[in-house]
Amino acid sequence: MRIGRRTLFSAAHRTASPHVSADENRARFGVCTRTHGHNYVLTTTFGGARHPEFGWLAHPDHLDTLVETVRREFDHCHLNDDLPYFRNQAATTETIVGVLFDRLREEAATLVPDIAVLRAELAELPDFRAATEGEPWRDFIREYTFSAAHRMANPNLSEAENRRLYGKCANPHGHGHSYRVVLTLRAPLDERWGIAADLVETDRAAQAVIEQVAFKRLDADIPFFQTHVATTENLLTYLWNAFAHAFGERLHHIAIWETPNNLFEYGRAPHFQGAEK
């Protein structure tokens, strides 16, 4: 069984690796080498067995105390100058979440010894976050948006049959969405730089994929959808294959929010395997 806790803290930092020169840092991290700050959102996932008598994994107050103990250490401080963790490594989102994960595990051993800290995910910006489950890799999570139109219709069916099957989504003139795509790359942490992926290079490659579908009518403008109904499931397949071509084995998961209520996702996790790509 798993449960989660979310908390916020505000902190300043400089993104600069102590293992390279100032010029190299500026070339890679740009203005982020200057002191700046963020409102961070930390999401922690805990796992364990439900208590047979009390019915919970751990007392909620104990979980709250655990998360708050770690939050206070990082809140309203300068990560590079006030904390010892970033003296020998860059204070990137990937390294910060790694330190938070370790600190949560340390405190959990005392406060909630019967449950495990399974995952920590840290959002630095609304469209960028990193996560770890304690392995040498990190999840590098980036969000993109695009606008597109489509019509859901099977060419082997009559107009009436398509209307009956797809409803208003079979409107011959099409309809559209502002799609939100959540891309997750999984890669080992580069200890020299403190990153799992280069943000600029990732954005460049991802935007090249997004441009294939942005401001298009999917069923009319993209050859793939001449032979595949323009459902969001098929859009997910199209984007997975395009991202896989761009990122190779680093591609771990993608999600598409078609609307604020409709989510579609696929990835390398075991529960996705066996699904047709």
TrEMBL record:
GO terms for molecular function: 6-carboxytetrahydropterin synthase activity; metal ion binding. It comes from the Bacteria. The keyword RNA-binding does not apply. The keyword Lyase applies. Keywords: Lyase, Metal-binding, Zinc. Coiled coil: none annotated. It catalyses: 7,8-dihydroneopterin 3'-triphosphate + H2O = 6-carboxy-5,6,7,8-tetrahydropterin + triphosphate + acetaldehyde + 2 H(+). Pathway: Purine metabolism; 7-cyano-7-deazaguanine biosynthesis. Its EC number is 4.1.2.50. Its cofactor is Zn(2+). InterPro entries: 6-PTP_synth/QueD (IPR007115), 6-PTP_synth/QueD_sf (IPR038418). Belongs to the PTPS family. QueD subfamily. This is 6-carboxy-5,6,7,8-tetrahydropterin synthase.
